[in-house]
Amino acid sequence: MEFMGKKLEDIVVTLPYEDGTSLDCGVYSYFEVNNKKYFALLPLKGEKQLDFSQSYMIYEVEEDDENNPIVMYIEDDIEYAIAAQYFSNQLSKK
Questions:
Q1: Rounded to an integer, what distance in angstroms lies between the CA atom of residue 72 and that of residue 65?
Q2: What is the pLDDT of residues 57-90, one digit of tens each?
Q3: How distant, in Å, are the alpha carbons of 2, 38, 62, 83 from that of 35?
Q4: Region 30-41: what's the mean pLDDT?
Q5: C-beta contacts of 23-27 below 8 A and 24+ residues apart
Q6: Residue 94 — very low, low, confident or very high, per pLDDT cuts 50/70/90?
Q7: Of all residues in the chain, what percent carry a pLDDT higher than 90?
Q8: For burial by CB atoms within 10 Å, which of 15, 30, 69, 81 has the most?
Q9: pLDDT value of residue 68
Q10: The dihedral of CA 22, 61, 74, 55: what is its sign?
């Protein structure tokens, strides 16, 4: 699967935390709900191996002028619930 011409397995998202630390994540899934795009992320083990022992994290994603992903925290609880339910339904179909 691809996002804007990039293979999902090649995309690494670094999530910054308020305490100055960060977490590198890989993209497990890309999906669209209600005309918005989302990534389901998992922390990475090593350089590019997804850590399936961790919980999925869902973030809204847009692209910049150069088609690079911009990952954004979902502030609205209802929007998050809708995206999470959609992702959960997709997981159960696999």
A1: 16
A2: 999 999 888 878 899 999 999 999 999 999 999 8
A3: 17, 10, 11, 11
A4: 94
A5: 25/57, 26/50, 27/3
A6: low
A7: 69
A8: 69
A9: 81
A10: negative
Tokens representing 73 are: 């925290």
pTM of the model: 0.87
Reduce the secondary structure of the chain to three states and give it as a string. Answer: CEECCEEHHHCEEEEECCCCCEEEEEEEEEEEECCEEEEEEEEEECCCEECCCCCCEEEEEEECCCCCEEEECCCCHHHHHHHHHHHHHHHHHC
Residues 13, 71, 28, CA angle at the centre, nearest 5°? 55
